[in-house]
Amino acid sequence: MTHTINLPRIMEIGKNSRFKIPDILKTIGCSKPLIITDKVMVSLGYISEIQTILSEANITSEYFDETIPEPTSSSIEAGVVKVRSGQYDSIIAVGGGSPIDSAKAISILGKFGGEIRDYKFPRQVNETGLPIIAIPTTAGTGSECTRFTIITNDATSEKMLCAGIGFLPIAAIVDYQLTMSLPARTTADTGIDALTHAIEAYVSKKASPYSDAQAIAAMRLIGPNLKRVYHEPNNELARESMMLGSTLAGIAFSNASVALVHGMSRPIGAFFHVPHGLSNAMLLPLITEYSIAAAPERYADCARAIGVAHIDDHDDVANQKLVSALIQINKELQVPTLAEFGVEKIYFDEVIQTMAEQALASGSPGNNPRVPSISEMIELYNKLW
Question: Do residues 63 and 89 make contact, with C-beta atoms less than 8 angstroms apart?
C-alpha cells in the first residue's frame, strides 16, 4: 500500500528562524509579498519587525490585518480584494491558525476567483495559488504544514473543510520565540489542539508508518510540556518543545487526516463561536473513551508516548490512564463545559441534529476507529453539557 506525503518545500525550524524570510522569498523567486495577519500581531510588534527584516533586504511589503478568529466566508473577502488590487507575488501568513487559514483561502480565491464554498471537501483543491510562507505564532494548529483550511459559511454557519495541496504553504518558519507572549488561555487551547492532532492522526484509519512516526514524536514532545508551558509561560525549553510538537502533529494529521473529535468540534465552533482548540479540548476525553474499544493498542501507544502510562502497562491499564490524564489536563488547564462557556441549552437543542449532520458530512468521523451514527453523535454532544 502506498501513501502520498505532502510537505512544505522549505521548513526553517528554531530560534530566530524568522530572519530567513528574505532568503526564502529569493529562493522561490518572489519579491513583493503581502503579509496577512491580525490586529493582535500588529499590536505586539511582530509585523513591524518582519517588515524591518524585509526592508533590510530591500524588499518592500504591505500588510492586511483584518483576519478574524475562526474565519468566515465574508471575513476573507476584503483580503481577496486586497490581493487582487496589488501586484503581489506571494503571501507571508503570520499568526495562529486563523490568519494562516485565512491566507490559504485568500491565496486560492485571489488567483482563481469564485466563492470559498466552491472549494469545500470533497473537492480536492490542487491548483497552485499565490505561494505562502507560513509563520505560526501559536503552538497548536500546525496549519503551517497542512493541506487544509477551515472557513465558516456565513449563510449556513457550516464550518467548511477545504482540502488539497493548493492550500499547503510553500514554506514554514517555526520560530518558538513568537509564542513567548501567548496568554495562558491561548497556550492551553492551542496546546490541546496539537495533542488532539497527534492522537487523531495516530488512531486514524488513514494512518501510515510515516504519519505514525510524526504523531508519536509529537506526543512525546507535547505530553510532558503541555501543563508546564501553561504554568511556566517563560520556560523557553517547554515553548520550543510545544512548537516543534505542534508542527510534527500538523504533518501527521495533514497526511493521515483527523477523526471524530475534529468532525464534532467544527460545528461547536461554528454555532457557538467556541475557539477551535477549546472545542477540541471539550471533546477529547469523551471521544477517546468512546473510541478506545475499537483500537485499544493504538490508544495505549498514545498513553505511553504522552508519558502517562508505563511501557510495561497492559493496554487496558494504559487506556484507563489515558482517559484519566485527558480529564485531568482539562481540569488543570481550566477547560470549561459548554454550559460554563455560556452556550444556551435551548439553542443547543435546536441545532444539535444539524451539528451531527454537518460533522458526518465533513468526512472526519469516517476516519475514526469507531464510526458513530447521527444518533450516537447527538448522544455524545449531549454528554458534553
Answer: no
Distance CA 98, CA 82 (A): 18
* Closest among 146, 359, 161, 144 to 260, alpha carbons compared: 359
Is the separation of the CB atoms in 47 and 82 below 8 Å? Answer: no
φ/ψ bin of 257: left (φ > 0), alpha (ψ from -120 to 50), beta (otherwise): left
Tally the residues of the chain: 385
Residues forming beta bridges with residue 152, ordered by sequence position: 72, 159
In angstroms, the CA 306 to CA 325 distance is 10
Which grid coordinates are listed for 90? 506571494
Query: Closest by alpha carbon to 190, among 69, 299, 72?
Result: 69
Give bridge partners of residue 134 from the DSSP assignment. 93, 172
- The pTM score is 0.95
Rounded CA separation 215/201 (Å) = 6
Going by pLDDT thresholds of 50, 70 and 90, the confidence category of residue 1 is confident
Q: What is the pLDDT of residues 153-170, one digit of tens each?
A: 999 888 898 999 999 999
Q: How far apart are CA 32 and CA 212, in angstroms?
A: 38
